[in-house]
Amino acid sequence: MLEKAGTAGQEKQKQDHLKELHAAILTLRAKRERLFAETAALKDLKDKLDQGLPLEEEETDDFMQLEQFLLKSRLMQLKDLQTVYHLIGGYNLIESKQGKSVCVSFRTAFEGMYLETYNLEMDLRRTVQISRHNIPPCVPLERLAKEHLQADFKAFLEILSLHLNALAGRKQQVLLIKELIGTVEIIERNQLCNFLVFMCKIQEETEAAVLCTLEYGDLTQCLPTRVTIESENKTLAESPQWKKNQVLLMESPVHSALLTMRKVGSIV
Amino acid sequence: MDEQARAILQRVIRKIPNKKLQTALRAWDHLSSEQLESLDYAQPKWLFLENLISRCEENRLSLKDVTKLEMAYYIDNPSKGTWHAYQLFQAEGDAVSVNFTQFREQLKAHLKDVVRHVSVRTKKLEDGAVWIRIAWGDNFSKPNHLKPTYVVHYLQTSYVFVLNLMSKHKPFLYQALLLSTRHVSIKEAQLSSRSLTAMRDLLMRQYQQVFPTNQERTLKERNAPPSHPSIEKEHAECAERRHQMACEAFGDGVLPKLETAVYKLETKYRGNSNNTLNDKDELFRGVVMFSSSNLLESFRHCVSAGMAEGPVTPLLSSITQKGRNSFVITDKVPGAASQTPAHKA
């Protein structure tokens, strides 16, 4: 008896649930029809505008109101963006894990060309800590984080961005040497691209060559801090032309310096 | 050629498959082309070896030359033996400006300082990897070339990979590495594998990591099984979310080929039945080991197929995020240090 009452109860529950679902379907269908009608009307309006057709009176009113709304929302969006950029110093920051962590993208560029993008994900729960990244292991990330991350977030992003951009720039310069000046032979280079040794030929037939060593003491810069010129021909290395070349290598990116040297005939 | 040289040559030749013998010997560049032509590569290895040894003796090749061949073999086959990863900490100011020549000279000098008889050979590859072969002796005996240690280090990074290091030689290697790379301390990185490339790719993040972006990027699942279009429509969003989660935890595309992950448990037993294990204050020690031909790929598939619940537990995602495959799990005691958060049974 009790069992039968129990199952009857269950049956009633099922029926009620079924009724609810049916009602939900009807409401959703009605909503769908309404949305279809609205989008159709908007689409008509847009088509008319695109084709430059004249609008009817009520459509013009709708249009003015719509435009006002659109402008207002765009303004609010831009203002928000402005505040955000001001806070994060112009870096591309994305929230993830429901606000528990933040992901920053660093874009690198050299001489107007975009190079790699690096990402850094930071955990914000207790203190700001780096959870993962794809920054090359030769960049001293731990040291930079230790020095700047807790004290000044923006400064950390700034200095990391400088390091990454300079690394990308130095790497690109070596690539350009290989591409633009095939006669220069690169003897030694490293992952951080802060130590570069290459050999330039002076004349076509002879064995005369000059060995240039470039050391980049400042990792946030694309230019070397020390340039050493060596050659078997001591007088050549000491000549005023090569003194000028030494200065050129200190003051301009390697590939441009080498191109200039080739133009004036210092190297082939 | 002395005993050791012959033994090493025999070992290396045995390991190289017949098809690759000729290229390996040519790359070695210690035999003339006539000598190379005169060898019959289809012979059984023991016969081939005898002929090879006589050619080597014609050229008066020494132990040093043979070790070069052995090193080339290991460089071409970085999946032999079990490699262990170490990490250097606390770089000094001039660590980033150490170049290859300085590193090599310092390493050799420091090893020779502490171990009277040691033989060190280094080679720098195109990709920046520095391979080091160390044959250890001691104060009285000459270096044993039959049990060399191989070390691979990428300059200006903090990672070192080691093969075949005996514990008695550890302190010497540690000290020499610290002094030549200008760091203060070195620790085991809790990552070991047969594949050096997998470990390197994992630690130096040379695989495609996936970060959350605000672009509407639909990660297309490769090789998806065929299914009914309505089911697909309903599940598309779910599947995409799972796929994104899986790729964020483990990476996209081809993943480093790790084979094992080991979790040592040092936790208390927590069951919901009434047996006696529950009341014990002692730790329930156990070891959980995952093994697969491609562990990270398997985990990623588990998550994207819905077999493992999301969000991905940090126990698994730590493999890629922290770059290790050996963990010790302890109970989280307030105030005490623990390796990873305790997992409720």
Automatic annotation (TrEMBL), chain A:
Coiled-coil zones: none
TM ranges: none
GO CC, alphabetical: Mis6-Sim4 complex; nucleus
Top-level taxon of the source organism: Eukaryota
Keywords, in A-Z order: Centromere, Chromosome, Nucleus
Main location, first listed in the record: nucleus
The keyword Transit peptide belongs to this UniProt entry's keyword annotation: no
Location relative to the cell: Chromosome, Centromere; Nucleus
Pfam families per record: CENP-O (PF09496)
Family classification: Belongs to the CENP-O/MCM21 family.
Name of this chain's protein: Centromere protein O
Native organism: Pygocentrus nattereri (Red-bellied piranha)
From TrEMBL, chain B:
Main location: nucleus
GO BP: any one term: chromosome segregation
Compartments (UniProt record): Chromosome, Centromere; Nucleus
One GO CC annotation: chromosome, centromeric region
Keyword list, A-Z: Centromere, Chromosome, Nucleus
Pfam family, one: CENP-N
Keyword DNA-binding among record annotations: no
Nucleus in keyword set: yes
Family under the similarity heading: Belongs to the CENP-N/CHL4 family.
Protein known as: Centromere protein N
Taxonomic source organism: Pygocentrus nattereri (Red-bellied piranha)
Gene coding for it: CENPN
